[in-house]
Every structure is written in structure tokens, then in C-alpha cells.
What does this fold into?
Amino acid sequence: MLRTTHAAAAAPLFFVTTLFAQTIDPVGRVHPAAQPLDNVAIVAVPALDRAAIDLEDVQRAMNGQPARYAMPFPVAIDPATHGTWEQLDAAWSLWRLRIQAPDASHVNLGFDQFFMPAGARMMVYSSDYEVVVRPFDAADHSAAGQLWTPVVAGEEIVTEVYVPSASRPQLQLHLVQVGSGYRFFGAGQRAVPISLISGACNVDVTCAQGAAWSSEIPAIAALSSAGSIFCTGCMINNAQNDFRN
It folds into this structure.
């Protein structure tokens, strides 16, 4: 699953590993009282200008800058002002919002406020339900109070919150960024020449220079920063040598 770490409030990072665990259906799909998805409110970010992005990425690679996989669009979205609320029954409420990122191959979300009351959970999934990210709940609270989601394939995704109605005033959720993805994660070829794929500080582990480091290579991971760029990171043991953080 995805592990998130925050070096600073303005620079969220996540380890890119196995992201999706489709262990539960979205409430909006299976609850008999939930409205059809077509009735749920929509927010859209600007369409991608892929030609301009390709030129920028070639220049970024030549400058040795980190590889970019999404264009970050700032937003200010809160369940109090956006989306669709429904009272499903006497005890539970559902909030949903459809997010459109025209011409995107995948979408990720950045929340600068994320607090789920006891029993509440948030899910993010593609509008066709083909990709469903496992639920986020109180166990995902961080010291920074933020949450940055994995990517979800498609150009329209849905975020939903299933919350005890009595706890709705405690819910804190503020979406500040929509990442419109355009490469990696199955998005296809990119314009950057193969000779420029690695940053100036990187050596590809599949090269001959990596042959002597076969035991260490599995500890190398891609790190996503701010929902839009990649860098390289690694796992290291601690002073007790017990493989714990």
C-alpha cells in the first residue's frame, strides 16, 4: 500500500509502491439510498496542453530537474461549499464530488486538511469504478494534518466521505490541489529523449554500474513530491539494526 511521509507541510512525499487494494465498494455505488453518480456535483480543472508540457519536460530534463508526472492545479474545495451531501438513513451521511481533469491519464488529490471522525472514511475512485483506492480513515491522520492520495486512472474521479451524521461537524477536509497526470502510471510514451530520462544525479540500477549492488537495489524507491514530481529515495536500517523506522 501507499506510505506517506511529510518532510515539510509544503512538500509532501509518498513512496510509490503497490497502491490499490480494492477490498470494499464505494458506498455511493452500493447503498440503495444513494443518488446516481450523474446527480453528483462536478468540479473541473483546466485541460492539459500536452504539447507545451512536452517542451517543458524536455527542458526540465536537460536542466537535471526531477521528472514530472502531473500538472498541479490549485483549488479550494470543502464539503461545506462543494459537492453533494445525502442523508442515507437515520445514522449515516454521504458526501461525494466528481473531479474532472480533461485529457488527463490519471488524477491525484492533495488535501491540506484531513480529519476523519470516528467511524468515518473517505474513498477515491474512478467514475467508472474500475480503480478504487482503499478507504482512508482516522488511522491515516498525520502530524501535518494532510493527505496526498495515490493516482487514479482516468480523467474523472470521485471522492466520497461516509460519515456518521452526528459527527459531520467534526469532519475536516480541504482539497487544495488536483494533479492532472500525463505520463508514467500507464500513461504511455513521453517526449523526453531516453538519454534524459534519469536526472543528472541518477544512475539507472539496470545499468552495468549497478551489478555490484544487487542486494541494495530493492531498497531503492521512487518518491513523489507535491503530487507532481518524482525523485529517488531509499530505505535504510536504524542504529538498532532491527528493520524498524
Observations:
- The longest strand covers residues 106-115.
- Residues 1-22 have pLDDT under 50 and may be disordered.
- The two ends are 17 Å apart (CA to CA).
- The first helix runs from residue 27 to 30.
